[in-house]
Write a structure and sequence with these properties.
The chain contains four helices and eight strands; from the N terminus they run ααβββββαβαββ. It has 183 residues and is of the alpha+beta class. Strands 1, 2, 3, 4, 5, 6, 7 and 8 form an eight-stranded antiparallel beta sheet that branches. The model has no long low-confidence stretch (mean pLDDT 88).
Length: 183
């Protein structure tokens, strides 16, 4: 009997020494959600660019420039005398508004007030289009930008004022540039 018990214990110890098996995932993802999201966003950008292009073609009063950052702009007031653009770390002061493409005001200059911003160094709550647009301006210039939603408020919109994925326009007045080289 003891002999049988020893044999049983020995067999149990051999079975229990089996290496652990990896658990299989409960659900396997195929990456289709990401692919679908990318395709959906491409279509949104394409539609917004078509709307902006139509608007540009209908506006014969202004000469639009396409930026490398994915938005369009024209000068309301251009400075041809100086060649100083804001650079990394420069402190700039400016005012801006946000409007629908049809000109309806969402945020006025008075709502936003005078903004102070360190170029590419501030965590200020500015849309990426305005941050990129300021770098294309000289002090004293006034520029109107047309931003697709991904350069503006994108998917999140703007608290009860602007829905999701809505292109906007913004008129920015760059007042001063305080260069870090002069400080």
């Amino acid at each position: 009997m003891i002999r049988n018990l020893l044999i049983l214990m020995l067999l149990c110890s051999f079975w229990s020494c089996k290496s652990p098996e990896a658990r299989r995932p409960v659900q396997r993802t195929s990456g289709s959600f990401i692919r679908e999201s990318v395709e959906r966003n491409k279509k949104i950008v394409e539609q917004e660019e078509a709307v902006i292009t139509t608007l540009i073609l209908q506006d014969s009063l202004n000469d639009y420039i396409a930026s490398e950052s994915g938005f369009w702009y024209y000068y309301n007031k251009k400075d041809t005398a100086t060649a100083v653009f804001p650079k990394l770390g420069d402190a700039v002061t400016f005012t801006y508004d946000i409007k629908h493409l049809n000109g309806e005001i969402i945020l006025s200059e008075a709502d936003n007030g005078i903004q102070q911003y360190k170029v590419d160094q501030s965590n200020q709550d500015l849309i990426s289009g305005v941050r990129d647009g300021i770098k294309l301006m000289k002090a004293g210039e006034v520029v109107t930008f047309l931003f697709p939603s991904h350069k503006a408020y994108g998917y999140y919109g703007l608290e009860d004022k602007l829905g999701t994925n809505v292109p906007v326009q913004s008129t920015v007045s760059l007042r001063t540039i305080n260069s870090t080289e002069n400080n």
